[in-house]
């Protein structure tokens, strides 16, 4: 075989293995454009980013760390419900969205750290530990909310903070086009997480623990500390998400807030090219995976597909992504 053909074959093989998430992203874009002729309007693109940041986008960044470390966290949806519900209560009491943000970050990080301690020090399987926290968090917020909504105090003269808080999700910076604050936050945090995972010691430790925990420990990696850090990180992302989620809705239903967030986040990480067994994954892949997931939902709406089928499609995406990653691993 001529040398140029070998090089072309090698390039194509690498493209479909190492950068399969880029190929998938391009294909989904082509499908979206063919279904929705208005797809590339800035309002639609901005809406996709805003939906991503205020639901599962930031959580997926933290989930990438967790999965790369060979763990899983299925408590994130209930965490967001608990954090956003109590966060609104703090906002109404203090009338300060910044105090609310600090509260959400602190509570999210505390819950995440608790998950990490259960897994690292308690030697509990991550699935069981986070399932227990998920059940507890949902029960607590339902108890205090009686299954009803936590609502930001009305936007009248007695609650001037209402509009300011609403603008966190609805506002943005005008540079010819309006770049929403959630969009800026999502992109900025994606860059930060990307640098952490690829350029720092803790990032290398996360990959090492996910690849082979015993070898990592023999190499001097503090495995328990690494596990706690990744769970604390996703808890932090749940805290920021709870803040943005509350701003977007201005009312949080205790019974169903954050439903399916864990599934959507895991799906985004999976279709972004991460190995579900740990040790491999990229923040760029997750970033594109989140956008792919939202683009798919956006396309389904444009195609008038019933919303009740979204969950089935999410499950199918996870199955296909994991099968492809398994094939790639072999």
**Most strands sheet:** 2 strands, antiparallel
Instruction: Determine the strand fraction and express it as a percent band.
Output: under 5%
Rounded radius of gyration (Å): 20 Å
Total number of strands:
4
Instruction: Estimate percent helicity.
Output: over 70%
Secondary structure class reads mainly alpha
Secondary structure tally, helices:
15
- Order of SSEs: HHHHHHHEHEEHHHHEHHH
Terminal Cα separation, in Å? 26 Å
Spans of at least 5 consecutive residues with low confidence: none
In round numbers, the mean pLDDT is 87
Please state how the strands of the largest beta sheet are arranged side by side.
Answer: 1-4
What coarse outline follows from CA principal-axis ratios? globular
Topology:
Elements: H1 3-18, H2 20-35, H3 42-54, H4 57-68, H5 76-94, H6 97-120, H7 126-145, E1 149-151, H8 161-170, E2 172-174, E3 178-180, H9 181-199, H10 201-211, H11 213-218, H12 223-249, E4 251-253, H13 261-271, H14 283-302, H15 310-329
Antiparallel strand pairs: 1-4, 2-3
Account of the protein in words:
The radius of gyration is 20 Å and the shape is globular. It is built from 15 helices and 4 strands. The chain is 74% helix and 4% strand. Helix 4 (57-68) packs across helix 10 (201-211) and helix 8 (161-170) packs across helix 12. The strands form 2 sheets. A two-stranded antiparallel sheet has the order 1-4. The chain is mainly alpha-helical and 330 residues long. The mean pLDDT is 87.
